[in-house]
């Protein structure tokens, strides 16, 4: 929890110190906020919802209590707040940072964002329409399936959220603007998260605790693989890239800052011409 929570601070601090968001893909904080919001819903439901806990016990009778812990919820809520802060740094009117014309949310990520919002709603409809007792019978479509839908959305987002940043690093042939410190902390958190899950299941003498909490198991493994990619980019592939310039941008297509109040939009002075 400490490693993962601390990993959210270096990037916004780095942006603020540079006075620029250059080098950071806007897709990352956009989709990251949604992912951790889903994870917060998932963890809070397993911790505090009697209905969800009863349905979990019915589906996994030998696993005891869910292997979700309070530190999982605390981390999720903290991550939602910090992700929102990083996203807000792309609004010049809030932080006064330089935001560039190339930093726009891609259509792919917008589609993923709204698709991820709709997916749990579809499962809610399935529960309401097909469950004979309003989603209380775990043997059929139940409310626990809605919570699992949120968890799978989080897993999907975790799988793809690093791709835009890795692609930006590749196009720029540089990791300048993308802090490596969060990656190192994130990697440590991923390893420790897997260790915690294994220890919890071992102490309960039932490995169905892993299958009953697939989101935590998958997130830990996905995190390790993704962070390894960034470590290779930073320390091996692009280690000889030019260092950060004084004004925080070093690429020709980033020399025109974004002056709009909305991230990903053209500057106000050019909107009428577009």
Radius of gyration: 21 Å
Number of domains: 1
Poorly predicted tracts of residues: 246-255, 266-274
- Overall mean pLDDT stands at 82
Describe what this molecule looks like in 3D.
The chain has one domain (2-9, 18-240). The protein is 65% helix and 1% strand. It has twelve helices and two strands. A two-stranded antiparallel sheet has the order 1-2. Helix 3 (27-48) packs antiparallel against helix 5, helix 3 (27-48) runs parallel beside helix 7 and helix 3 (27-48) packs antiparallel against helix 8.
Q: Layout of helices and strands, plus pairs?
A:
Layout (H helix, E strand, L loop, with lengths): L1 H5 L3 H9 L8 H22 L1 H10 L10 H19 L3 H4 L3 E2 L6 H24 L12 H30 L8 H23 L4 H4 L2 H24 L19 E2 L9 H4 L3
Antiparallel strand pairs: 1-2
Brief write-up:
The protein has 274 residues and is mainly alpha-helical.
Keywords:
mainly alpha, 2 strands, 274 residues, 1% strand, 12 helices
